[in-house]
Each structure stands twice: as structure tokens, then as C-alpha cells.
Amino acid sequence: MIDNFVINHSLTNLFEAKVGNGYLIFSTIDLKTNIEKRPAAKQLKNSLLEYMNSKEFKPGNEIDLNTIETLIE
Fold first, then answer.
1. Mind listing the pLDDT tens digit for each residue in 12-69?
2. 38: which residues sit within 8 A by CB, 6+ positions away?
3. Terminal C-alpha separation, the chain
4. I need a labelling partner for 60 at 20 to 30 A (CA). Which of 20, 41, 48, 52 fits?
5. Running DSSP on this structure, what letter comes out for residue 12?
């Protein structure tokens, strides 16, 4: 995702990472509110959960917990 054509920052609203001894998918997409009335969000959530429960879910990039906490604040 690009913020605008002038600044041209590469942004994301979903990423995966290794954090400590575990793996994380971090999303700023609302995958909870009125999910039954939002088929695209429901499918994205289902696909992410399926991926996270698969053998393929092994993020290569590592992020420390302090960075994650900063994102949440």
C-alpha cells in the first residue's frame, strides 16, 4: 500500500513476524465487527486462520516485543 503519490511511503496493514519463541500475524484490519455482514472480512479472517494453522506459517523476519508494543500504543 502506498500512502500517496507525493510521499510514496510503502505501508502495510497486515504482516507476519517471528516474535520471541512464537509467530505473529499483526493486522490493523477490523476482522471482528459485524463479521457476518462483511463477507470479504470474514473470508480474509478464515484464510488467515487457516494459514496460521498450516505448516507454511513460519515467518522469516523477526521483530522484538518492544516494537510490537510500540505499534499497539
1. 889 999 999 999 999 989 999 999 999 999 999 999 999 999 999 999 999 999 988 8
2. none
3. 22
4. 41
5. -
**Alpha carbon of 57 to those of 5, 23, 53: distances in Å?**
33, 8, 7
Whether the CB-CB separation of 38 and 32 falls below 8 Å is answered with no
Q: Which residue has the cell 498450516?
A: 54
Between CA 34 and CA 8 the distance in angstroms is: 33
pTM comes to: 0.78
Q: Which residue has the cell 516485543?
A: 65
CB 2 within 8 A of CB 10: yes
**Amino acid type, 44:** L
